[in-house]
Amino acid sequence: MIKLDDIRRHAADRPHRSAVVDGEKRLSWAQFADVVDRFTAGLAAQLPPGRPARAAFLAGTGWELAVAMAACRTLGVSCTGLDPDQHPDALTHTLRELDPVVVLVAEEYRAVLGSCSWPAGEEALRVLLDGGEATAPGESPFAELLAAQPLRQPPAPPEQGSFTVVPRGAAPRVAVRPAGAEERELGDHIEEFGFDASDVQLTSAPLWEPLAQSVTRTLLAVGATVVLDRSGIPERLCTLLEDEGVTTAVIAPAVLTRLLAHPASAGRTPSGRLRCVLASGRDLGRWVVNTAWERLGPVLHLAYAPPETGLAAIMGPDESLVARMRSGRAALGSTLVVLDQEDRPVAAGTPGRVAVAGHRLMERYLDDEQPFVMVDTGRGLQRFFVTDDRGVLDGQGLLSLTGRSGGVTRPLRDGAVDAALFRLESDLLNLPCLRDTAVLRVDLPALGDALVVPFTAVAVGREITGHRALSEACARRVPSIPAHVIAVDCIPYSPTGRIRTAELLEAVVPIITLKLQLEQSEHQEISA
Predict the structure, then answer these.
(1) Dihedral angle at the C-alpha atoms of 47, 52, 53, 58, nearest 10 degrees?
(2) What is the pLDDT of residues 406-428, one digit of tens each?
(3) Is the dihedral angle over the CA atoms 199, 61, 46, 77 positive or is it negative?
């Protein structure tokens, strides 16, 4: 988020214009400056002395979180977002890595936080957002800190890096970003998307998601209005787009799919001001791109943004209509290259490991590992981070993801099957007859080694067409593994676009198993 000095500057220029809108709560720039000033003073009075202060937050999108993050930035306290829906073991692992002395927590996640332990945990300050009441030592309600007297002069914050959590199952990693990276990222975003003070930004993605946080921070930095949506309800989003005159937006992939699938997005015309919608494009399909163009106009920008690199590639609305899904061009401030197994750049059109360079690149992981390679791309040696993705760069600089590898390690033994599954996923994402789909490889007693391929048809009554298209694609790409294709009402996603595999399998596997049993019974009756 931005510092108090920047907020005061905007408050002097446009005191009565809205800075942050969250439901019925509307803060003008003057009001935003006042509450951040007071909260900063209250937080400063409770910070432990004599050690580098780190903060973390476990909360959804809301104005209280925006105020608290601005206060942390003002005090030079790194503030890292945590996925509140991850497994408690993964959350505990991350907290032990970060060891925060301040945790900003929403009421609904207090119990989850209470089950976690970390070195500074017993002495850590736990700030209760959204009206929670303190019931244990170390807890302070948001309103209590907000009641402090304003600062006479904000302290000079120490220069330190920031942290980003990289999901890795039960053992997430923490990437350390260099000091000053956020300022350079801000400049890149302004040049890439033309953000300015006249914009109205809709954030309908959690602020712990790096892309949503960086874009929201940029819009506040230029003095724009930020509208926070914590509901993800299509009807509400349509109302916000129209009533608030939204010009730019960051929307979580699953929320965007629900919005475009809802009749409200077709029945209500946006204000006409909307010009840019950013969403993570890794698992969005052709139907989303086509429908976004029809209902919202030429506004959808698909982003490729690994946590370690920030925004690495972008696909604009015009080219996304003709390019394959999971494609993009290098974003400003980033350089893309495809490497062979000896870390040498490959010729255009040759598949290899995707690597990213740029000033937004992380410095290291918090455990000190530095998974970088030095590559000469014709402009001298540069430090590149080797991602977990495989891809192809064509002669015009278009990157197309083609599979997953193991970062700097060699592909796994079944890499050929993994590559075939990735190609299958990409084929399905490019089918306009599907609203959504997933490809899951399982090894279960009832199914054995098999593919489970749930899908959502574009409309009621189109399930048979979708089933046929998916079955043929599975047989073509992965003929060696039996595929169970099944129509579902929706596919559950996390806010970052990751499929909630366990939840999905729990819903569809019993149906598939019952279907197999019925087919087996029918076959036995015919044979008899």
Answers:
(1) -150
(2) 543 333 345 567 778 888 888 88
(3) negative
